Give the backbone structure.
Amino acid sequence: MKKYLASFNRYVRCGAFCAIVAAGGLPSLSMAGPGHAHGKADMELSLQGASLSGVFKTPMDSLLGFEHAPKTDNQKRSVEQLKTRLSDPTRFFQPTEAAQCTAQSVDFQSALFTGKVSGGHSDLEYRFVFTCANPAALKGLDAVVFGQYPRLHELRVELVTDKGQRSVTLRKRNRVLSLP
Ligand SMILES: [Zn+2]
């Protein structure tokens, strides 16, 4: 619950920042980025020792089917459900069970959460960290997010490990990333 509250505070801070952006037109995370393609997501994933950390970004349309602030009761429920899932990164990505990885921290931000969507599009930026008690057993990461959100069909991963860097594209039917 503490982690969830920490994330909630980030929205509040973003709320003030995004208001400044709306007034001054500064470049911002809150605006849809150049890679904004509905149905697609990108992730930087880093595996260093026992720590597996990711930064996942996708247009909100890929998850919710809309990118404006929620209006209807159904849309509000979808947003609350998304926030609940984001507070537990195993709802998005599941490391090999035998590696005994537990979530250490999460942080998620979107203009949609603040109600300050500009230009009609919004993105999600989701950061998470797992720490694994048995990292030698870590063989893969299952992107279960594809099962939760059928609008999402492609995830490009930039994987960085102490053995080097590589790019992998995951899809619904090929959703498990091999590690390391
Ligand atoms: Zn969009």
User: Anything to note?
Assistant: The first strand starts at residue 40 and ends at 48. The two ends are 31 Å apart (CA to CA). The chain has one domain: 2-178.
